[in-house]
């Protein structure tokens, strides 16, 4: 189902998502009688310049998730010989649009602690997710379409 935005926020394409534990983890927790954490709502910036999606560490704490591995990451401010090690997590992702939740997929995403509270964002959705969906920027209209 396509999601057509309202006006871009500044120059940003922003969507709402729910991040939860992976389906495999939810099944394992349920099988052993543990409570499955409720998905966490976050506002996400669509970022075609990011190869992997990054979420605030708060989200992983709220989901009581431990990292499954790490990834060495280079950014414009990271020296090429000194990449930053980012924790990776297995999660489920859903788009929240048009008054409904649209499950997307289980993903491996990283923790990224680059959020300013006044921006209201805690996620960059990178090409690992955007390459699996339809995204079109309608620049003159200052809108975008994103269909997961």
Which key terms come to mind for this protein?
mainly beta, six-stranded mixed beta barrel, globular, 43% strand, three-stranded antiparallel β-sheet, Cathepsin D, subunit A, domain 1, 148 residues, 13% helix, 10 strands
* Domains, number: 1
**How does the helix and strand content classify structurally?**
mainly beta
Report the CATH superfamily. Acid Proteases
Name of the level-1 CATH class: Mainly Beta
CATH fold-level label:
Cathepsin D, subunit A, domain 1
Which CATH architecture is right?
Beta Barrel
The strand order across the widest sheet is 2-3-8-4-7-6
Your description of this structure?
There is one protein chain. By secondary structure, this protein is mostly beta strands. The protein has one domain (2-147): Beta Barrel (Cathepsin D, subunit A, domain 1), CATH 2.40.70. It is built from three helices and ten strands, in the order ββαββαββββαββ. The strands form two sheets. It has a six-stranded mixed β-barrel. The longest helix has 9 residues, at 23-31. The radius of gyration is 16 Å and the shape is globular.
Helix and strand arrangement:
Elements: E1 2-4, E2 14-21, H1 23-31, E3 40-46, E4 54-55, H2 57-62, E5 69-73, E6 84-97, E7 100-111, E8 123-125, H3 127-130, E9 134-138, E10 143-147
Parallel strand pairs: 3-8, 4-7
Antiparallel strand pairs: 1-10, 2-3, 2-6, 4-8, 5-6, 6-7, 9-10
